[in-house]
Amino acid sequence: MKHRLTNPFPVRRKPRRTLLLLAALGLAGSLLAQHDHGGMSAPASENGEAGPSETADDAPLYQCSMHPNIVSEEPGQCPICAMDLQLVEKTDAEGIPGRAPVRLTEQQQQLINLVTAPAVRERIILRKTVPGVLAHDTGRVFTVAAWSSGRIEALYVDATETDITVGDPLYRIYSPEIYSAIEDFLLVRRQKEANPQLIRSARFRLEQMGLTAGQIDALSGRDAPPPAIDILSRVEGKVMMQHLQLGQYVREGDKLYEVVDLSELWLIAEIYQSELPQASIGQRVAMTLPGDSEQTFAGRIDRIEHHIETATRTARLRIVFDLPEDGGAHQHPHGLLPDMWMHAHLETDLGEQLTIPRSAIFDTGKRQYVFVEQDEELFVPRLVKTGPRSGDRRIVRSGLEAGETVAAEGTFLLDSESLLKASASGSEDTQEIASDNAASADTTPAPAGFSPEAKAAVDRLWEAYFALGEALFEDQSESAQAASNQLLTHINALQADELAPAVGRASWQAWLEATAAAFTQAPETADLKALRIRFGRLGEQLQALAAQSPELRPDGLFVASCPMWDATDGTWIQRGGDAVRNPLMGQAMPACGVIEHPLGETEGGAR
């Protein structure tokens, strides 16, 4: 039996909370409907003065639990659904716009699985993992050029990837210029009264033609210059490019070799602008290779670029590796090479902070609030300002004091009841929350409130998904691993607070957490089977996203399935619906499967 991951974006049924919100937002417009159903609210007098419901603050109110816009001063039945109206209990505690205090008995709290937690002060260390690419130290790149013109008589280093050290012979050259300079040097040394200044001048001339001090000393006993001379390396590293051949005639200044010293490497990592406060010059960093969390490298940040990439909204960090404790040359393992992916683990100690569980916070995009337990049965909504999150905790900047208790779990029904009570009052609170949502709807660029930056970030996720699918279809493990690393980068990028939608933040966060879990809980090996499992799980989450947020769905996409694949649900998303390109089976069965339907439609064709 195949199992799908839980879809945090239900397609066929709207959550009850959404219906309640819609009912509250329609409160003002429903007053006329109330009149048509029998005038459940007390009418105004003929001279325009308020009726009894507006003059007696302590008058009881009755409300329909299914249609919160139906409010009456007398018990009875809802004119819409015929359910009995419920008494609205009033409290002396003050709420916030759109939310009212709620009193729940101990039994009621148990029924909704309500759990409370205190606000506590604790030491917070923010931990962030960012991707990076290894690069060589740009100050350790050397060009070996011809010291003088001549013909290459012998090649000692004739292949790239050759390791060389200072003093190693590179090539032998016949050069008329060097020959003449050696001849002059021997001549001045043979003079009976040798002029030290002339000797120094001749020696300096040979040094400028590439001869070392040892080579020049060895010439002192010769009667004639050698026909060719060896040129020794003045640098250490790995030969990355070679530009000469045996018998070639070179001119002074010609580029012969390019050498890179790989004993010092940098990790170039990218961090989002919202996370820049978590990085500082000199900060200690731990680094690991993907799939190998046991081997850890230590280093520090020595540079933060003062530039934000417009496409990714990231800044680049340069991390240098620590030198070994014995003070010797810093030699990296053979497996650590430029252009490899690594993960940088940043830690920022914020000291003692006031924190509460993340689940206790309601975030509408324009404000944040929690339900504070005022006594054992009364929960009062209160506005708060929060800071960064650390694991399952969230820092509270203002609005709470240490020791105060908040509702941490089972808060969905508590919030719904709070909304019902606020709408029952018919006060400006409900109208304010409606106007807030209306204003948000006017300013957001997409139906779900996604900004252009958020849509661009999701587009990059789609492109990386298709790149991984194409690599899996072609059975290219290296390209698939690179695309998988890119996908993880884009998934992490979507966690940025500024990319969250203006409406539906809770659902968006649930989708992100489910997607990250589906992607990272797959086997971390680089073999194609593990990458295909990761690809299949991510495809399931993207189908959920496309169903709930069509504005984030590219055009021309189709859902295909393969009955032969059983590690995930056997479906994937591909561009075009003409032919199957099976990434789950690859070249073993590239055309196995069928095109089910366009992405965003059900099997029956409904969107």
Features:
disordered N terminus, 607 residues, alpha+beta, disordered C terminus, six-stranded antiparallel β-barrel
Structure explained in plain terms:
This protein has 607 residues and is an alpha+beta fold. 28% of the residues lie in helices and 27% in strands. It is built from 13 helices and 27 strands. The protein has helices spanning 16-25, 31-36, 52-55, 106-111, 176-190, 196-207, 213-219, 411-425, 428-443, 452-473, 477-493, 505-520, 528-548, and strands spanning 62-63, 71-72, 86-87, 102-103, 115-118, 120-136, 141-145, 150-155, 163-164, 169-174, 229-232, 237-242, 249-250, 255-260, 265-272, 284-289, 292-304, 314-321, 341-357, 362-363, 368-373, 378-390, 393-398, 405-409, 557-561, 571-575, 594-598. It has a six-stranded antiparallel barrel. Strands 7-14-12-9 form a four-stranded antiparallel sheet, with no helix packed on it. Strand 21 and strand 22 form a beta hairpin. Helix 10 runs antiparallel to helix 11 and helix 10 (452-473) packs antiparallel against helix 13. The protein is elongated and about 130 Å long. The two termini are 27 Å apart. Mean pLDDT is 78; it is low at 1-56, 326-331, 427-448 and 603-607.
